[in-house]
Amino acid sequence: MKIILNQDVVHLGEEGDVVEVKDGYARNYLLPTKAAVIYNKSNAALFKSRAAAIEKRKAEKRAASASLKERLDNVSLSIVVPAGESGKLFGSVTSTMVQTELQKLGFEIEKKKIEVATHAIKMTGTYTVVVHLYENDLSHIKLVVMSEAEKIAADKAKAEAEAKAAAEKKAAEEAAAAEAAAAEEAAEAETTAEAETETAENN
Known about the structure:
Layout: E1 2-5, E2 18-20, H1 23-30, E3 36-38, H2 41-49, H3 51-72, E4 76-81, E5 88-93, H4 95-104, E6 114-115, E7 121-123, E8 125-132, E9 138-147, H5 148-202
Parallel strand pairs: 4-9
Antiparallel strand pairs: 1-2, 1-3, 5-7, 6-8, 8-9
């Protein structure tokens, strides 16, 4: 069936596009949800009259998509799941779980726009999740999947690194303070010596 999209439909097209779809898809989903209308002269003329407004919305969506892509590309997600010693998960990581983690960071992304490697991740490790944005824009997000044991180890290592960094910072500050105190003491000694010399010369 030939239709005109009334709104953007993932993996199908954008508002105003004329596309061919299976009759069942059109009758059972696209037409009832008003995502599309049947292609005919009347509807084609209607969309032609709305072309400028549609193009303006597309430009706004492109700008928003570019901004979102820039922010998403810097995102790194960590998901902790139960797993065996071999790293095999007791279950899998799905697009729904990724969507939830993104929501925690303030990103509202439709689940159908999130593409998880091999559809479901079943081993611990580092993966790349693809998020489909507007038109051909794609964002690649780093996803670290770890077991609960790995999470505990990672937290311990992080705490130790932070403690070491804090100790090094404190030592550096104490050394700087000692150096400043020594410099001040030397300056005072020099001033005292100059004063004593001046007094001796005056006498």
